[in-house]
Amino acid sequence: MRVAAAIFWKDLLIEWRSRDRIVAMLLFSLLTVMVFHFSLPGGATAQTQAMAPGLLWIAYVFSALFGLGRSFSLELENDALSGLALAPTDRGWILLGKVAANLVILGVAQAVTALVFALVFDLSLLPVAPALAGIVVLGSLGLCTVGTFFSAIAVQTRFREVMLPLLLLPVLWPLLSAAVRATTALLAGEPVPSEAIQLLIVSDATYLIVSFLSFDFILDD
Amino acid sequence: MSRAHIEARGLFKRFGHVEALAGLDLTLDAGECLALLGPNGAGKSTLLRIVAGLARPSEGSLSIDGDAAHERTARRRIGYIGHASLLYPELSARENLIFAGRLYDLADPPGRADELLSEEGLSEVSQRLVSGFSRGMAQRVAIARGLVHDPDVLLLDEPFTGLDRRAARRLESRLDALRRSGHTLILVTHDLASAARLAQHVVVLSEGRTVYESRGPLEPDSLERTYVDALEDAP
Description:
By secondary structure, chain A is mostly helical. Chain A contains 8 helices and no strands. Chain A is globular, with a radius of gyration of 18 Å. Chain B is α/β, with parallel strands linked by helices. The longest helix of chain B is centred in the last third of the chain and has 16 residues.
């Protein structure tokens, strides 16, 4: 547990000093929102507002791909990844520390993206902000867990930039469908379907347990 | 300090079709300094990474006092100083050592970091980011990082690379002092003179196999001749 806390602190400190991930993630997600705005006919119509939850999660996933890809590539410089793997601990704690740091960094990018999204698509997010934040945290936990896990695999391959989306996107399908369904219901003023929340929780738990237990083998040569 | 005995039996490591280690046997007594010599691609670094628990053998076993090298109990006893420093350039020297101390769950990581920085003569620059350090300074921080948890076994992969003569001599006497205090050292190097001064046990590897092994005091000139002969006679 203390190893996870140390990695969380170290990753956030490095990000605070370099700010390279958060800037790239914000620029990318905001550009995605702008592309949606200009490519959809008629700007903020009822039709585009109905598509908003899906578009919002697409922006979140694209943004996450940028940040998660960097999560382990920063460990390649000076072979710091070996330094982590040498630690006499369950290597799953290394993963959890990284997941927590990624969740915070992604959360900042998501909050700014949501504000811009609300302005561009004329959505009133303030009244549903706490519930939306809950859905986004549940969705992002699974996204960051499995994304960080695959980032550790991708970083050891020759085609690391291509490998992460190829590995991640198919696995994310159940989680994303549940997150979009829950967000759609919330923004439409309808009750959030409990099956969607249950699927989010089950997906998060599954990703966390499987990733924690199998991470030991990922860091071996 | 408890003294660590290392034993490898029938060690194979394959990367696809490439055989990096081909049935290696090795016994290293506690408190010994072993120099692992051989040309590039002989399997020296692979063996070191297996001892460090960073890689698992494809076949065979490697144990440290009976514990498999990749087990947590064995990893706690290993310090590793590779060709790369394992340091984060965006963190200061002190922050790097505190972080390493936390990875080993030390009781007082800041105190241990200050102690090591003082021993390495780096207290003045402890708050400076490692990105601004010379190769020699970064190597001293890397050595402090490898020693942060006071390991029984120290693995050194080309530790003299990039160091000037003075820094290399300083490192050599540091390693000699560590060995005298009971640490077991495994040194991978192409620097035969340093190997002769530090090691009491020499193994020459070629294509993943031991082609020469000796124990006892060594002279730099005779080691060089022996090394060349061993490689020429290798099958």
